[in-house]
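Ticket #4471: structure output looks truncated?

Reporter: J.K.
Steps to reproduce: submitted the chain below (483 residues) through the standard prediction queue, then opened the result file.
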Amino acid sequence: MSSRPALPAGLRLDARKARSLQQPLRPAPAPEVAVLSLDQGSGEAAEPTVAVGTRVGIGTRVARAVGTAASDLHSSVAGVVVAIATRLTATGLGRCISIENDATDARDPALAPLAWRALDGITLLDRLRGAGIAGLGGAAFPTAGKLALARANAAGHLILNGAECEPWICCDDALMRERAADVVLGGQVMLAACGATRCTIALEDDKPEAAAAIAAAIAAAQDGRVELVELPAIYPLGAERQLIEAVTGREVPHDALPPAIGVVCQNVGTAAAVARFVSTGEPAVTRIVTVTGSGVARPGNLEIHIGTPIAAVVAACGGYQDDPARLIVGGAMTGRSVSSDLVPTTKGINCIVAATLADVAIRGPEMPCIRCGDCATACPARLLPQQLHRAAQADDRDALTRLGLADCIECGCCDYVCPSQIPLTARFHAARLGMQLHDAERRRAIEARERFERHERRLAEQAEAERLAFEAARRRARGADPK
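Returned output as attached by the reporter:
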């Protein structure tokens, strides 16, 4: 076991995790109807492979990935597909597959353990891709895609992210305490898939029970490639680039991905899902979710069937209490409010917070910036939020680019420390969207101009060909050219 220095910036926040960790990890009941969003949180939707009326078992594939960010989707219950329609999800309106649970818990007969040690890396990656395993830290990016990129770049270092730094969220802590062997096994499988030679399981020093369990699992595995690193409990240490820098001392270039410096990062929950797949054949159909907040009767960590409505998840924790003012998916710093508890859970939802007014800080009126510099001191990406804010207000895209808006991880640290109550993160998010829209419009304009120019060239070429044909025909008519 080794340690690393703290990050140069960040915040020490009230964790608010003790109540949720008082009870052991427990399974939640399967929903009566599982609603599977085709976009599981990555921003890209899968394509249905079933129709209304199709009978499925637990683990049956119901949608296939059609892009680089989507993942295959499998049924989390046994039953019948009753609808494929647009519904409200945690990220807005999106197409969903609804499956009525027949309460048989019948597994798809094709599911079987995987002899992964006998497979080459490419074949193993293909099997993981087919299992629909995606990043369970919140981004839901396909695991096989990240591992394949690491393999292509000969990345030698795999980091398993257990640095659960955001307030309220403790699903990874609960997982590591109770299923540490799965985390280690998943790390070994991913080493084989991506070709890396070293695996670091990184977590914060405020998780002694989890650290002890992981250390014991590493010792039992007798695999010298796997190590444990404990880091200071500073937010946002769990952000991928910040964690990589804390573990390796190297910074990922702003215009590159971690494999460019020989590193690939995966969540510990993702590693456990990989272990479950190779051990039982079960694809990504469940995940662990923290259910917490003063508005929940019995906070805890539940293993839920993906597609369970939030209302049913909260009911499994005793239901609501004390009139929640806001329902948040994700943590207090980077989570987002949802307008209904009927939205389904996805692979990307790791926490549900039923927050009362006692939990939610009421933002005061916005005041002028006093140039205190606290935002720059707290920024883990080493940006200058004060200057970024001025550029955002002026819609100065050149300045936003020069000041590194693209490197903002929208962690909320600048908001948290700003004495003037300026909604900096929201302004930066809006500025980023504006720049993306501007870039998209510029690309469309360039493509339109290129299409027009190609069209003009084709017309000119056609006119020239017609002119030459006419002149040749005239010469032949005059007998000047016997051909």
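Triage note (M.O.): checked the attachment and the full token line is present. The longest helix spans residues 424-478.
Status: closed, working as intended.
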